[in-house]
Amino acid sequence: MAQVSLKKLVKRYGALEIVHGIDLDIKDKEFIALVGPSGCGKSTTLRMIAGLEDISGGEISIGDTVVNDLPPRDRNISMVFQSYALYPHMTVRENMGFSLKIAKRSQAEIDERVNEAAKILSLEALMERRPAQLSGGQRQRVAMGRAIVRQPDVFLFDEPLSNLDAKLRTQVRTEIKRLHAKVQSTMIYVTHDQVEAMTLADRIVIMRDGYIEQVGTPDEVFKKPATRFVAGFIGSPPMNIEEAKVEAGKLVFKNGDSLPLPVQFKDRVKDGQQVVFGLRPDDIFPTGHGLHSGEDADVHHNEVSVVITEPLGNETLVFVEFAGREWVSRMLNPRLLKTGERLQMSFDLSQAHLFSAETGKSLAL
Amino acid sequence: MFRKISPPVLLLLPAIIVLVAVVLFPLLLSLYSSFTPFRLTKPASLFVWAGFRNYQRILTDWVFWAAFLRTVVLLTIALNLEMLFGLGLAMLVNKATYGKRALRTAMMFPMMFSPVLVGFQFKFMFNDNVGLINNALQSLGLTDQAIPWLIDGNLALFAISVAEIWSSTSVFAILILAGLLAMPQEPVEAARVDGCTPWQTFRYVTWPFLMPFAYIAMTIRSLDIARAYDIVKIMTDGGPARRTELIWTLVGRTAYADAQMGLATAMAYISIILSIVFTIYFFRKLAAARTQIGAEW
């Protein structure tokens, strides 16, 4: 069993507090992604779990053991680093077998486990090469192999795909997912890329400025963002977010444009309240080009003008002018649009999000 | 007359002339003189061909071989200790969280002093009557005798090694520190996670990375020590009774005190072989260590 639990975890550098007492329970065999913008404390948290950073306050346990004062080597973890961190003077085989050699395992066992890991990652042909003779993707696979060979309780990934080019990134991403299915260990994965987090994780932890904003499945954080920050961070292209004021059953934006107040929020807001309105690009579409017909009760139509379009083949991202800013919309079965063209847009308000203007918390919860 | 010379040769001619005048001619002259019984006091002897007589004499002369071996011994001891101390010093400085730069500068102080002055200073410190070392030892009650540091042959060689090591350990320290600073931290962290103790981390990850830097320092210092002259000249002048005679103090003595220039150049040519052998050895090691860590420089 290798559940990982963080209790009131704090990291301070001198007077500067980076991580402010976070709590997190990671289940055995779970794939957890820590995601957030740079400087949010996600890497620091991972390094504290690894034992590479001291813990300033709180408690970390792996399995049933509190590991606060254990050195990294006694935590039974493996870590994959952004820069691969391979030992440059060792061959791929030596790199992968190193931890077992240190643990004084028999040569037969080392060979067996290294070969097995090599097979999982299709590294067999590269075993006698040195890291300098490998490409970035190959190096990262070796780094993963080195992690697998240890058969750890917990795998830690620190932005493992950041140094790879876009194509390789999706490729290695799939491999990581496959790896998790095969080895069935607890995995903690740090990334700043929400797509990676969404595609890989069982649950996503969204961090910001040393606090956890939300923990949930990819579906939950996408459909029910707990805060304005999560709403803006998860999803690509990002959610359209704009401040508005509730006035007589309407949401009135700063420039005077308005939308009806979504019915699901009727009892949750007061007249005159400042709120933040959010709507995903999928829920704004040129009428007739959306996920559904746009004839439902809570769909509102508005005429807007096109600012620019980004055709993607099967769909086009249309940037339109509304409420004093640009809104992104996703147009299915696209037709050619011209800049400045007037367009009838459907706003599916049943999918709308409202957040408190003061706290940023969702008003749907 | 220049028309007959091809343009590339013509263009290289100034460089060739300078090189011939400054390097090639003296080199050939010295090589030639090693085959003559040339004495500074008898210039005409430069034109007497003696064949391999000088070389024969040296190769069968135990005084030369003793000096040669002593140089190799000093080189081995000093190089290893400097390497060890330099490594320790660099690791300590690298650990410092504060004032790293000041420490780095302070580390280089010994290199800023003229070796002749270092020689005088250590000669004073190791003096059996008024020297600091004996005084300290006596005050601490470790001995009640005046230890003849510079008079006993073995102790004198020890004293010279101490002076050498004091003045040049920083060459190792600086170069190894440069290696430590250039070293990526992730492999070290990976090793810690992989189950390495601090010693194993050093042994399997840090040290292989530092090896090229250590070999560069070794190459530089092996040449330095192989031509050691100044400190020895001042501290013991090869004495007592030639017990601390090194190759170059012997060459110097033969050339100028005994005025046997022909014999001295022959010695010098044999000695240079020593330096060349060491240089080739360390460069090979360096190249191997560099490929090992996949260095891109």
Automatic annotation (TrEMBL), chain A:
Single GO MF annotation: ABC-type transporter activity
Claim: Signal is one of the keywords in the record: no
Pfam family for this entry, one: OB_MalK
Membrane-crossing segments per the record: none
Residue ranges occupied by any ABC transporter domain in the UniProt entry: 4-234
InterPro entries in UniProt: AAA+_ATPase (IPR003593), ABC_transporter-like_ATP-bd (IPR003439), ABC_transporter-like_CS (IPR017871), ABC_transpr_MalK-like (IPR015855), ABC_transpr_MalK/UgpC-like (IPR047641), Mo/tungstate-bd_C_term_dom (IPR008995), NA-bd_OB-fold (IPR012340), OB_MalK-like (IPR040582)
Membrane topology field: Peripheral membrane protein
GO biological process, alphabetically ordered: carbohydrate transport
Annotated keywords: ATP-binding, Nucleotide-binding, Transport
CC terms in the record's Gene Ontology section: ATP-binding cassette (ABC) transporter complex, substrate-binding subunit-containing
UniProt xrefs under SMART domains: AAA
Protein localization: Cell inner membrane
Protein origin, superkingdom: Bacteria
Family indicated by similarity: Belongs to the ABC transporter superfamily.
Protein name in UniProt: Sugar ABC transporter ATP-binding protein
Organism of derivation: Metarhizobium album
From TrEMBL, chain B:
Residue ranges that the Swiss-Prot or TrEMBL entry lists as coiled coil: none
Alphabetic keyword roster: Cell membrane, Membrane, Transmembrane, Transmembrane helix, Transport
Cellular component aspect of the GO annotation: plasma membrane
A family per Pfam: BPD_transp_1
Intracellular or extracellular location(s): Cell membrane
PROSITE patterns (alphabetical): ABC_TM1
Domain (ABC transmembrane type-1): residue spans on this chain: 68-282
SUPFAM superfamilies (alphabetical): MetI-like (SSF161098)
The keyword Transport is assigned to this record: yes
A GO biological process held by the record: transmembrane transport
Location (main, coarse): membrane
Chain ranges passing through the membrane: 9-32, 62-90, 102-122, 155-183, 204-223, 261-283
Topology of this chain in the membrane: Multi-pass membrane protein
Record flagged with keyword Cytoplasm: no
InterPro entries, alphabetized: MetI-like, MetI-like_sf
Family designation: Belongs to the binding-protein-dependent transport system permease family.
Name the UniProt record assigns to this protein: Sugar ABC transporter permease
